[in-house]
Amino acid sequence: MRELGIGLIGTGFMGRAHALAFNNARAVFELPVNLKLAALADADTERAQRCATAWGFAQAHGDWQQLIDDPKVDLVAITTPNHLHYPMAMAALAAGKAVYCEKPLAISLEQADAMRRAASTAGVVTRVGYNYQHNPMIGLARQMIDNGELGEIISFQGEFSEDFMADPTSPWSWRCEVGHAGGALADLGSHLLSMARFLVGDVQSVCADTQTVHRHRPATPGGTELREIAVDDQVHALLRFANGARGTVSSSWLKHGYKNHLSFEISGTQGTLVFDQERLNELRLFRAGQDGFQRLLAGPALPGYAAFSPAAGHQLGYNELKTLEVQELIMALAGQGTDGTDFEAAWQVERLATAIRVAAREERWVRIDEV
Fold first, then answer.
1. Are 126 and 98 in contact (CB under 8 A)?
2. How many angstroms separate the CA atoms of 286 and 318, rounded?
3. Does the pLDDT value for residue 43 go beyond 80?
């Protein structure tokens, strides 16, 4: 088997999730390539070395460009704050290397467009971290929809809410910067928009409203100096899908009690499907004519599940979804699969998010082809 060298940029929460996923993928799956953790980069050189040692990477760099230039690196995984996605991905693409970038793809539609064009020119595999779509239960939902089990799809109601910014004394971070593509729509809502497109299809037009509830936050934890906040705390949008279905999406990082509430209800002329990421091993199905909802439980018959557990009800978690995403990425790099969100599809998500922002700002319906 040929060797595939992995280079990881970033050592935060998502950096660790990627490292676990690469390690888990080569332990759990029979991959068509020999996966090597070649290099890890972080602006903090000491942290880079510490994490490289702990996570099994052969080399540590204090400069991300050094990682991209490393001849042992074939795939560049980017888990940095949003404003760094563009320069890092463009440098990797210029070097002819595959790119695995966290969402959102970029901080502007112009950057996302340049990235997808550069990826097309480079002719390399790209993927973006919309890992929730790799849940076997989401695959089952997609299959049921495609097979017509719900009849004609007429509505999508989706929400992604958490409460990690609900406290107005929670300090400013880069997620609060407009220039870093901050706000609930970029941070949470992008997952929901990608999910809506994955399950129901292209969106034709949108109408929306956004709100900044807490307009000032402490500049530092426990500090008295305040920084002005201009990003959205919550967003609500109406969608018209190209296939005629209608939809609503909402996202908030202020909603007390919710920790990872990526949820949707999809209704058709013959039934309804319900999902909530906080119960990620379940779907609820209602078929026309039956009494009440049926509970569908994840199990080894679903693609991907049995790699982690041979028994239904034992449940997968967040890191297993990331591992499934990495496995599909590796298969694509080996020329054996096309699943996953590439830069072209991620640009479509950014285009939809941009249309929502325009609709909210101009208080009107906006067609996606306007942006």
1. yes
2. 26
3. yes
